[in-house]
Amino acid sequence: MDYKKYVIVFFITAALFGSAVYASNYINNKKIDSLKSIEDKVSIDILSSETQFTLLEESSCADADSSSLADELSSLGEKIAASEQNIGSDDVLSLKRYYSLLEIKDYLLAKRISARCGTKALVVLYFYSNETDCADCAKQSDVLTELRDKYPGVRVYSFDYNLDLNAVHTLTKIYHVSATPSLVINDRTYTGLQDLPVIEKTTPLLRAFLPKPAAKMVTPSLVK
Amino acid sequence: MPRCLGIFYFLRLENTLKHKGFRGIVRFVETVTQYIIYAAAFVSIYVEVFLLVTFIEERKKIVYRTGSTVPARYPTVTVIVPCWNEAKTLEGTIESLRGLDYPKDRLTIFLVDDGSTDTTWEIMQKYEHDPQIRIFQKENGGKHTAMNLGIKESTSELIGCLDADSFVDRHALARIVTYFDDPKTMSVSPSIIVHKPKTLIQRAQSVEYQWAVYIKKVLGLLGGIHVTPGPFSIYRKAVFETIGYFRKAHNTEDMEIAFRMQKNHMKIEQCNDAYVYTVTPPSVRKLYRQRLRWIHGFIRNTFDYRAVLFKESYGTFALFTVPSGIVSIIAATLLFSLFVINAARFIYEKIHEFISFGYHFSHAAFHFNWYIFSAHTSMFLLVILYGLLIVAMLIGTAMAEGRFKLSIHLISFIIIYQIIAPIWLMNAIYKAAFTRGTSWR
Question: Given an 8 Å threshold on Cβ–Cβ distance, is B365 in contact with A142?
Answer without folding.
Answer: yes
